Amino acid sequence: MTLAIAGLALTAFAGFIVWRAADRLWHALAIAALAVAFLPLVAGTPAGDVSRVLPAGTFAHGIEGKDQIAMASAAATVLLALMLAACVFGATKAVWRRLRRR
After folding, report:
1. Residue 24: other Cβ atoms inside 10 A
2. pLDDT 10s digits, 41-90
3. 48 burial level (CB within 10 Å; 0-12, 13-18, 19+)
4. Which DSSP string do the residues of 71-102 spell out, in sequence order?
């Protein structure tokens, strides 16, 4: 249950950040491309292996637990890269708009 709640919260937060940063469809595509570029950077963070961060009782024992750890780590890595890309894109867009007004 803890894993499902954490996954839903992370997905909702990532969706909200992308929604706020993207005004047009091509903005979302640019954020996705930027997220792919950030994947190697994010894979080395604790999101690359969430079994070290989440409590011990979060995952099942045995083979099922290993599958859950792999899926949770992959999802966390992709979503964190997506959130980082959306934040960078949104900040760049805000700076660009401010400079164009001058």
Report:
1. 8
2. 998 887 777 878 887 788 888 777 788 888 888 999 999 999 999 999 99
3. middle
4. HHHHHHHHHHHHHHHHHHHHHHHHHHHHHHH-
